[in-house]
Protein 1
Amino acid sequence: MKQPEVQESIVSSKLGRAAKLVGTGAKIGTNYLKYYAKKSITGKEDKEELHTSNAADIYDSLSNLKGSALKVAQMLSMDKNLLPRAYTQKFAMSQYSAPPMSGPLVMKAFKNATGKYPNELFDTFETKSLAAASIGQVHLATKERKKLAVKIQYPGVSDSIQSDLKLVKPVANAMFGLSEKEMKKYFEEVEEKLMEETRYELELKRGQEIAEACAHIEGVHFPQYYPEWSSNKVLVMDYLEGDHLKEFLEKQPSQEVKNKIAQALWDFYEFQLHEKKAIHADPHPGNFLFNDLASVGVIDFGCIKEVPMDFYYQYFPLLIPEVQENLDLVDRLLTEIEIIFPQDDDKVKEELTSAFIKMTALLSRPFNHKDFHFTQEFIDEIYATGEEIYKIPEVKKPTQPRGSKHALYINRTYFGIYSMLADLNATIKTEAGDWKNRLMEKCGI
């Protein structure tokens, strides 16, 4: 993989970051002018070229700003039904291929975070990064014959989250058609999660807790963390061998190996969600390492979504066919999770209920089969259904924000996992476990 150009500095002031995004907006305007000029001359629309130019300009800007601005791009790259392909492909680079900090900037950031330079703590330390993403970048080090991964947070990330999200809102509104009403509700949830991701001491604690709770799950392994060498801006853990998904698949592993890995991922998420009520909610390929021993390493616990019990008992019954057939129960549950409101007229209620049940029936298909084959066709069907639902007037231009904020990271997690399983072309055991019976009993079915 070609190493991106390094950054000698990161813009941290609000004014400087705002100016960077304003400049990006000007580039997007120029791209549109070129598009309309070409269209007037040739009479043809070439929106793919427009999208490609816009995606490149937006990504270049956000990847240099780092932090929450780039994290939003990363999240959008996983939401393929929201963006044209040019955006999702370009933004996916933010998962682990963003431009890294230069060596001197790495040293300065490490010293500011720990009070020491890397060579004062480790036997060896490589200044060239192994991977660079939205919040920080990872370096290889050794200590007492241990091979370590050292994650260093980009300077100024935690201080710029609120202002960054305010700056990104107009871009999201202009490029992706998101209304202010929609954004306000969900951006609060995004801001809370992003603030948590900058607290490496919290990530260390969560990583240790989840590793202990999930130690029994076959095929999943976790790094050991080292609090004595870590801080709130530097996180030190064991270096895990393996490849990110794209590189792993390029080695053409057997389908048997891919199925075992997929089963491990499925079991890992099922246990977290239905037993622990807290999930690793950042399931993009950059956070997993795959190997030909049919094992997957989980290396990032910065984004953990704790699922409130009331939301769990309101949302997850809707994945069960027997619940979907009980319209009175569906009406109550959809009202509780704010998909429909008592003041909605009958037409709006009917449209939204029908759309939600159609989508949940699709998303819950794996749970209702003993074995399920995840394919790209299945993913395409999900996105096509999403596009169809988006055409409903009350969905496209809602009169009020709809849906619980808690669903944002839950849905994102499912889409991410389903997409990875489809990339693996996996056939695995997916039938709902005891949680289905527990939820049916809770609903009185």
Protein 2
Amino acid sequence: MIPGFGGRRRFKDLSEQEILALAISSEEDDARIYRQYAQKLRADYPDSAKVFDAMAVEEDDHRQRLIDLHKARFGDVIPLIRREHVSGYYARRPVWLVENLSLDTMRSEAEAMERQAEAFYRAAAAQTPDADTRKLLGDLAAAEAGHSEQANRLEDKLVGEDKRDEEDRAAHRQFVLTWVQPGLAGLMDGSVSTLAPIFATAFATQNTHTTFLVGLAASVGAGISMGFTEAASDDGQLSGRGSPYKRGLAAGVMTTLGGLGHALPYLIPHFWTATITAMIVVFIELWAIAWIQNRFMDTPFLRASFQVVLGGALVFAAGVLIGGG
């Protein structure tokens, strides 16, 4: 089958020229990925950006060596063959997903890329009878195998332990500001604000189906409201809290989950079984919030427990009193 017209070539069916062309395009793609990592990191992690810049230069060198060999053996015209044209060939993340990768994930992705490239060159060398081509592919396999160590050496040279720790702290802080803080606010809002309407409805009607519908509506409505409010309140440019869309997503989803936690038990048809289960879920939710505050926000556990549990208990009591009245 012709690539791009519904089928892919099997790797074992590629000619030597096609293997070289595939290697050239792959090295070019990897260099672009490393440069994009560097560009993404340059503002907040300039030293790690230098590491990815240096890795991109290495990929450029590999590509040039492959091009030189192709010219010597097959001429100047390189066939168009890319990863997506070969069945079973390793894939790379789409470029637009780079925006969502953390520094640690980029480092892990780079290590995986080097391992995959090494495996490709070893398989390609085994399939190539020409001595010069086989030698170059074998050399590149060895180079890719050593890239992880080389990246570590580059990181030690360009970043250093103190700067690496500083970047790790900055990455952790950004994670907390972008995901944990709005998510925690949403979880607190969803868990606490829906207590009164859910339990007021439960004790007023003693109808589990009605209570579940009220809880579902309150949770989803609160999630949508909280998500839009978080996204619209701060674009993150001055505060450094990160993408408003990520923060809005975290706040909206966690608000909805916080309310659904004690609404879902009312799918149980027996009123008291559902209510007792919901109370247990509320207890777990409130202590989970206290733990997250202590773990990520450095709030003393006793103070977090007192604030969350007392607040939740008061809202719960209000719902029971209103519904029971």
Protein 3
Amino acid sequence: MTTPCIICVAITGSLPTKDNNPAVPITVAEQIESTQEAFEAGASIAHCHVRNDDQSPTSDPEKFARLLEGLNTHCPGMIVQLSTGGRSGAGKTRGGMLPLGPDMASLSVGSNNFPTRVYENPPDLVEWLASEMRAYDVKPEIEAFDLSHIFQAKAMQERGELQGTPYVQFVMGVKNAMPVDREVFDFYIHTVKRLFGTGAPWCAAGIGPNQIVVNEWAVSSGGHARTGLEDNVRIDRDTLAPSNAALVGRVVDLCEKYERPVARWQQAREMLGVPQKTA
């Protein structure tokens, strides 16, 4: 396979704390440093959450603004993707950072179960988030926790709520949601190609110890891969990951194994249709 593999690093998330792994970057300064290391290791997309001083999740636009500024300075060209996820806020507060005009933002287009609650994404909120992304020229990454979410993305595209070819990410291994299942994974790929065309880009993320499993499936199947401390804080059962860069390095090794080049940021932007914004 000659298609370069885009590596996305999910640096912090909403749940892991320094009690889980001291390498989890919490402050904006820590996040910038950790992302720069991951960028230099081969990641071309940074998926970002922000935290309060007590490590609790937040959607504070001011913190996102400082993080975005720092990443644009220290990781020039890297695609910055901000999270609109539901653990960090409720309702329209989840999209309060979109006027900052990041390159990308996550967009969950349907609801599903999480370990201890329902991850609610009601249609009116999804439509509003999508409209804000269009207004501020932010490319959505469709987070598919269920097969129906891929079909919902297609319906939104047909209604003009998503412009261009969506970038769909399969999220597998969240407790009470879609498990890590190879036949389901392969059907996800088939469904994306059937609905959006054989050349439609897609990505996959596995949670916890399944991270490396899904990384290998994605790399070996011609897709793109997400890694990072948001999804998994360990290298193996007995070893904490020393950094986001170390987890990126595992994906780089898989790319070498399957003879795929690692996408540079310029290639990632071209493949996803995300031009570099001028200040």
